[in-house]
Amino acid sequence: MTRESAFRPHRVVVLALDGLLPFELGIPHRIFGRPKDAEGRHLYEVVTCSVRPPGPVETDADFSIHVENGPEALATADTVIVPASYELGPVFDEGVLTDELAAALARIRPGTRLASICTGVYVFAAAGLLDGRPATTHWAEAAHLQRLFPRIKVDPDVLFIDDGDILTSAGVAAGIDLCLHMVRRDHGSAVANEVARRTVVPPHRDGGQAQYIHRPVPEPQLATTTAARAWALGRLHEPIQLRDMAEQEAMSVRTFTRRFREEVGMSPGQWLTQQRVERARHLLESTDLSMDQVARDAGFGTAQSMRQHLQAALGVTPTTYRRTFRTGAADPAVTP
Fold first, then answer.
1. The pTM is what?
2. For tag attachment on the chain, is the N or C end more exposed, with fewer CB atoms within 10 Å?
3. What is the CA radius of gyration of the chain?
4. For residue 64, what are the β-bridge partners?
5. DSSP class per residue in 155-202
6. How far apart are CA 13 and CA 3, in angstroms?
7. Residue 83's closest CA among 149, 170, 141, 161?
8. Element (H, E) at 130
9. What is the DSSP string of 229-295?
10. 85 close to 17: Cβ distance less than 8 angstroms
């Protein structure tokens, strides 16, 4: 068998259900349709199927889409992705599969990787595939998912969860994060980073859904923490105390902390650490500064402190991050 004949792209089958969101349906095609190997061959093949024979599938918009593959395509998948739908019927209301959907899912081969975007998680939950396992969905539906399926460990704060053979994501754009993660898992950060660049999205988004949950916002006439944040961003390399930030808004520390949480969704300390991690990432990607200098410029003080914070936030060391996201750059002279 020749090398050319042995090559087979990873087959991703996207299950299109009535009431689907066109944006989310397009995410797998956009992300998995980009990666190629050194010889220019597509690393993935993306196919869309329905639970019915080929034909129209309704969307939540004022148009339907024509799907050319029926449920038999699920039997050929290496990965099955279920995007969100607003018409899941008894799956969403009662936690049970329709006969049509159950028959379609039965075609999936054992060992196939499963992934959901937003409320697509209800399909796997109703099939009993998530019992005793962690999962997530759009923050607005997380409580309902937990009530309907109490055996699932629902985490409403994260953008996605990778539990090995089953991955679930939060709403809408979190599907991009999930698909990029799968590309990264399959082929490494360099490939995923290139896909992210071409899609004009960040390779990795920090934080979780908490930053998007609606929170009471102070009335326009009341003071905000905008000036304090701008002030802090201009001196991340310096020690910054909470009282220093509060003084920029002429507030007490207690009032400032409460207002900051209302506006930003996290404490001032957490926000400062997040901004310093972002500064460190930028410097690691774009400069040849030593680790000690990057740590000082980002406000971590020492390379060891920076290492601990990046490891906690990104899961990798500064050295690994630089090597991954600065392809071709010379190895830094100082190792953290």
1. 0.65
2. N
3. 23
4. 58
5. -SS-SEEE-SSEEEE-STTHHHHHHHHHHHHHH-HHHHHHHHHHHTS-
6. 25
7. 170
8. none
9. HHHHHTTTTS---HHHHHHHTT--HHHHHHHHHHHHSS-HHHHHHHHHHHHHHHHHHH----HHHHH
10. yes
SS3 state of residue 113: strand
d(CA 130, CA 121): 9
Mean pLDDT in runs of 10 for the chain (336 residues)? 71 96 94 92 97 95 95 98 94 96 97 97 97 94 96 91 94 91 88 87 65 45 76 92 92 91 87 91 89 95 93 85 62 34
Kindly state the tokens that stand for 61. Answer: 């918009």
Q: Which residue's entry shows tokens 């709403």?
A: 171
Q: b/e string for 160-178 if b means 16 or more Cβ within 10 A?
A: bbbeeebbbbbbbbbbbbb
Question: In terms of Cα–Cα distance, which of 31, 131, 43 is closest to 81?
Answer: 31
Cα–Cα–Cα angle for 286, 290, 291, nearest 5°?
95
Q: Write the Ramachandran bin of 152: left for phi over 0, alpha for psi from -120 to 50, otherwise beta.
A: beta
